[in-house]
Write a sequence for this structure.
């Protein structure tokens, strides 16, 4: 095979080199798709509006206000409902019924109110005023009056009643000498036991003058303000079981 060689003076032919066409720079304020960082807002993208945010906040505030009013209204209704107390049931004891009457509550409503059974009631003001007047008059005659027993708590009266039951053998017999707490005038602060014997005997002779009456024949030392001053005391009952 014959090879034809070019003469050494013939210059080599160079292949043309391809060059990349430079891309146009991204216009100002647009997003560069070739990775350049945006120099502003993207084309045709609207600016954020603050009106919608304000409306949303206003709506949330309105909902919170309505919720607060509802809560207050609920508490107000609950306070009204809480004013109602339980009704008396058939199982309520005499002591509980007494506690209702001694707290100044409307007994016709049949409502129960919790009372401390150890609390000693305040003695009736009229009763004490009359006793003070009588004691002063007795002292002027050289005689001293004293209160041997006045107001008693429910628990004190109950203890005395139970002791009387043990002594007399039955509640019926004990009630002639010691009243049960639910009927005792001492628990209501409306009775005084006067001493010594000379003292209650003197007051018994002057009971109408001071409006302090002997109530029970078997307890002549027991006085209550059952009449007006200067009135006539009723006949004494045989004992505490008698009808008044």
């Amino acid at each position: 095979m014959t090879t034809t060689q070019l003469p050494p003076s013939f210059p080599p032919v160079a292949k043309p080199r391809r060059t990349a066409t430079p891309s146009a720079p991204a216009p100002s304020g647009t997003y560069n798709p070739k990775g350049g960082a945006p120099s502003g807002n993207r084309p045709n993208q609207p600016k954020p509006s603050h009106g919608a945010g304000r409306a949303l906040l206003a709506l949330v505030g309105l909902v919170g206000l309505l919720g607060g009013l509802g809560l207050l209204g609920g508490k107000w209704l609950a306070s009204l409902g809480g004013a109602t107390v339980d009704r008396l049931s058939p199982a309520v004891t005499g002591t509980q019924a007494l506690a209702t009457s001694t707290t100044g509550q409307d007994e016709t409503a049949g409502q129960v109110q919790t009372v401390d059974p150890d609390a000693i009631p305040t003695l009736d003001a009229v009763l004490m005023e009359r006793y003070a007047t009588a004691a002063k008059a007795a002292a002027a005659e050289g005689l001293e009056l004293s209160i041997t027993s006045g107001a008693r708590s429910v628990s004190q009266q109950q203890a005395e009643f139970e002791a009387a039951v043990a002594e007399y053998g039955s509640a019926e017999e004990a009630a002639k000498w010691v009243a049960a707490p639910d009927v005792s005038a001492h628990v209501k602060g409306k009775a005084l036991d006067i001493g010594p014997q000379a003292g209650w005997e003197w007051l018994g002779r002057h009971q109408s003058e001071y409006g302090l009456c002997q109530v029970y024949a078997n307890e002549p030392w027991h006085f209550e303000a059952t009449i007006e001053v200067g009135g006539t005391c009723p006949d004494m009952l045989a004992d505490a079981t008698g009808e008044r």
